[in-house]
Amino acid sequence: MTLQDEMKKRRTFAIISHPDAGKTTMTEKLLLYGNLIRSAGTVKGKKSGKFATSDWMEIEKQRGISVTSSVMNFPYQGHQINILDTPGHEDFSEDTYRTLTAVDSVVMIIDSTKGIEAQTLKLFKVCRMRGIPIFTFINKLDREGKDPFELLDEIEEVLDIQTCPMNWPAGMGKRFLGIFNRQKEEFVRYNGDEEETIIPYTELHAHSDLTENAMFQDAKEELALLDEAGDNFSLDDVLAGEQTPVFFGSALAPFGVETFFNTFVSMAPAPGPRKSTEGVVSPDHPEFSGFIFKIQANMNPAHRDRIAFVRVCSGKFERGMEVKLSRTGKTIKLAQSQQFVASSRGTVEEAYAGDIIGIYDPNIYRIGDTLVTGKDKFEYDELPQFPPELFKKVTAKNVMKAKQFKKGLEQLVQEGAIQLFKRHRTESYILGAVGELQYEVFQYRMKNEYNVEVMLESIGERIPRWLQAEQIDESLFDEGNLLVRDREENHLVLFRNEFALNWFQEKHPDMKLIDLFEVN
Ligand code: GDP
User: Fold this and answer.
1) Which residue minimizes the CA distance to atom 6 of ligand 1?
2) Considering the entire predicted model, what is its pTM?
3) Beta pairing, strands 322-325 & 330-333
4) H helical segments located in 118-234
5) Does ligand 1 lie within 6 Å of residue 140's CB atom?
6) Which residues pair with residue 311 across a beta bridge?
């Protein structure tokens, strides 16, 4: 098979959702279709008490959660599927955002009883801003949920994206009858635990128990309304991230999941070209290239080994090959590569654009690093720094350890594990993170890798804004509106709340405050 054939087969995506919307259930169903697992309930141990996908890290073991995203891959209907798991909830961190830089599309799962929920909104927005195609699955139709039109409105409004329902539900909860498949013009009947039945539109007349049902009739009217007034399906718009195809179903039943997946696989994009310092790099460029989007440390504390996750962007990866780290120009032999399949770590012999490989990191990589072969020396676009929301003062418990403290802090910050800010005058340090877990990992690694116990003191949730002004009058700032500098010496103000931010802006219209989210 040629490079191009291999690359075209790849479907690399993440499933994102609010906790409890059904991501695990959905993932398991997909793994079942891919014959990767034989029974459900094996992916996450959190609730079921069964083993978790990854429990390498001590923290993971203690908390019974998966700290960092894992990757699952399997062949499916002539395609090669790569699912990148994104941790959500309290495990939410910058890694969750960064994972989105390594995928070609996302599946967004929404709980029909809840709609779009706050925490996940940011994740969806990052996809939207980056133009990642979003496929929506509205889950739990077997429960009494919100009105489907209301759900579509919500998606359109908060994400500023067009929606195009690919199927349409008749009833819900106890009165759930099934879905109209608009593309195939057939009605898929929901039979509870029994297998679904498929009835072509042309044969519906023979099913009077359905056609005479008021819910069914309502749904038919809604469908007519959609045909007339709804947005037309446009694959181009979907691929441009301007329209999201919407599917209704139940991941648990499962109902509508297989059809969803098949449609998804046929429509979702294969790896595309990526921007670099030397122009756009095509995925079938003959030389290997990729970038590191995540570094997972201490999976085995005894060996202190670290794994860098590489998204392959072009060419062919082969075990044992030599690559060049663009940032330093150094050549590295990649003898140990590991690819992550569900809960077992296997060795990869080869990989193509779209694949994710884990490589051993002897402490030389940074998040965002580019690896290339041949004469290439370009670097892929820098990964954006995602705006932290939680801030804590950090100090070493033992002042005698100032040196190790600084070293550890510097290295972990450089690696991208957490963000560092300096207070204006005092030169004291403030750490910024997207999620609480980042602090736990930081504290753990400082102790284990640098032998320094650190103290963290929360200064609460803050609203960070970059500050642009001709002159910065320091007397305007205090503990409430805290002035800090980031690594590039840019000024930021960490506002106590929205009110303080608005008040400040009104008082000082000449000072420009920039939302970190808007820049990414
Ligand atoms: P995650 O936190 O997004 O991974 O959600 P899970 O997949 O763990 O699902 C959360 C809960 O919702 C579990 O108890 C599931 O059994 C349940 N669930 C998932 N999908 C459905 C569905 O389609 N219908 C119903 N009734 N429950 C579901």
Assistant:
1) 22
2) 0.85
3) antiparallel
4) 118-130, 148-159, 208-211, 214-229
5) yes
6) 291, 356
